[in-house]
Amino acid sequence: MTDTPTQLFIGGAWVDAADGATMPVDDPATGEILCHVADAGAKDAQRAEEAAVQAQEEWARTAPRVRSEILRRAYEIIVERTDELAHLMTAEMGKPLAEARGEVAYAAEFFRWFSEEAVRIEGGHGVLPDGRNRMLLSRRPVGPCLLITPWNFPLAMGTRKIGPAIAAGCTMILKPAPQTPLSSLALAAILKEAGLPDGVLNVVTTSRAGQVCEPLLRGGRIRKLSFTGSTNVGRLLLAQSAEAVVRTSMELGGNAPFIVLEDADLDKAVDGAMVAKMRNMGEACTAANRFFVHSSVVEEFGRRLAERMGALVVGPGTRNGVDVGPLIDRVGRAKVEELVADAVERGARVLVGGRTPEGPGCFYPPTVLTDVASDSRLMDTEIFGPVAAILTFDDEDEVIRRANDTPWGLVGYVFTEGLDRALRVSERLEVGMVGLNTGLVSNPAAPFGGVKQSGLGREGGRVGIDEFLEYQYVAVPVR
Question: Is residue 251 within 8 Å of 450, Cβ to Cβ?
């Protein structure tokens, strides 16, 4: 921890908060304080904004190849420091080291992907239909951006936003979640080492998000907001962005259905369920929330899933052999406890787990519930914990209706061996992404995002850079 920056990163320099404030960073496995980092306020937000605005014009003129090579160097540094970054991530948010290493690789890949996209920003040219003008179409950076990232994937959510912003020629202010600031500060240090000019990326760690973000969004100089987090906070930020008509992309909450049809391969379905449910201890917006299992296979599926979940080892993420680390904090664990208790009160049976262990840390055991009532609170709440809630169905139309009966639409999972049926069910789901016979959809080369109240826009893939670019059309008379 001694080599990890703990100050704000503004204009290429490490600085304290203007009022000297700091905030603790806790280890969720022990409850102990790891360190203190600078706690930014309104003056620090102004300093960061000024640095980003001042750097924007020159950065926008920087050759795409230069931007590409900075991202490529940063990718290589991240890969070289996989173990160091993984230990840092596990310390501040709890995931087992094996998962943390996987996230480091995932995070690095966004920089490699967008290093390649930086040199493929194209416009267009042609004569307009009336023959009077030629059209020159170019793409330009949208301008200074505010990037707000969550605590559950602290490194990857940073690179997924920073990568396309750098590639497009935008400057940035990054505000990481207060629970996990260290990964973002380490990332800023890596980008500085990779040659990113001063002021292009500024990092403000804060527990005073309202003081930092609202003035930036209402002030008119920030031209783009990219946010990943809860739908409730997303609504608030959208309202704040409206005054200055700030362009927004929002990756919000999910309530993913996991559908097991009667012809599913149960080995594939259980394997997929373990990934879709237990990645990151269930603390993911893509986590399977509602397991709809056909009545003809529900007993067998539940038995197999409970057996697999019960075999997982819970403990500190740094300990060898641990599969499931702690939840992020006691508030998050209390939410999971309350949701399980409510489901049980309404008639759910606990196949495995369901009881909070004694001792330090924010641990909760992998839990499988069956006979879950449709009016249970966890049916319309993002669980964000290692709890699989199983419901039964008998009819395809019925399960699609129930799966779509939610204001969210991020991702859904479908398990069936019939190709026509697989495509039919996938196409009828009101979601932005579908895992078809797989429990993992996230990939830097694929567009990530949802519909309905799960968000606006897409991150990653060939369209990921579009969120940070504007079109300019120039009319040239034909003579």
Answer: yes
- Choose, from 92, 103, 251, 382, the residue flagged as catalytic: 251
CA angle 64, 67, 69 (to 5 degrees): 110
Residue in the structure block whose two tokens are 């267009």: 124
**Sign of the dihedral through C-alpha 187, 189, 194, 199:** positive
How does pLDDT run across 42-51, given as a tens digit for each residue? 999 999 999 9
Question: Which of these, 278, 279, 226, 288, lies nearest to 254 by C-alpha position?
Answer: 288
Q: Left, alpha or beta for 32 (phi > 0: left; psi -120 to 50: alpha)?
A: beta
CA distance 197 to 402: 51
Is position 302 within any domain? yes
Give residue 2's pLDDT band: very low, low, confident or very high (50, 70, 90). Answer: low
CA distance 11 to 59: 13
Catalytic site includes residue 251: yes
In this prediction, residue 140 carries a pLDDT of 97
Q: What is the pLDDT of residues 447-457, one digit of tens each?
A: 999 999 999 99
Q: Is the pLDDT of residue 100 over 80?
A: yes
**Model confidence over 210-236: pLDDT tens digits?**
999 999 999 999 999 999 999 999 999
Tokens in use for 41? 């306020």
Residues, the chain: 479
CA–CA separation, 457 and 328 (whole Å)? 27
Cβ atoms 285, 449 nearer than 8 A: no
Q: Judge whether 448 lies within some domain.
A: no
1 has a pLDDT exceeding 60 = no
Task: Say if residues 92 and 36 touch (Cβ distance below 8 Å).
Answer: no
User: Is residue 214 included in any domain, yes or no?
Assistant: yes
Domain-embedded: residue 273: yes
Domain at 97, CATH number? 3.40.605.10
Mean pLDDT value across residues 67-95: 98
Do the Cβ atoms of 203 and 17 come closer than 8 Å? no
Q: How far apart are CA 339 and CA 333, in angstroms?
A: 10
Answer yes or no: do 248 and 262 share one domain: no
Secondary structure of residue 212 in the 3-state scheme:
helix
Which of 337, 329, 12 is closest to 195 using CA atoms? 12
Residues in contact with 422: Cβ distance below 8 Å, sequence separation at least 6, in sequence order: 414, 416, 436, 437
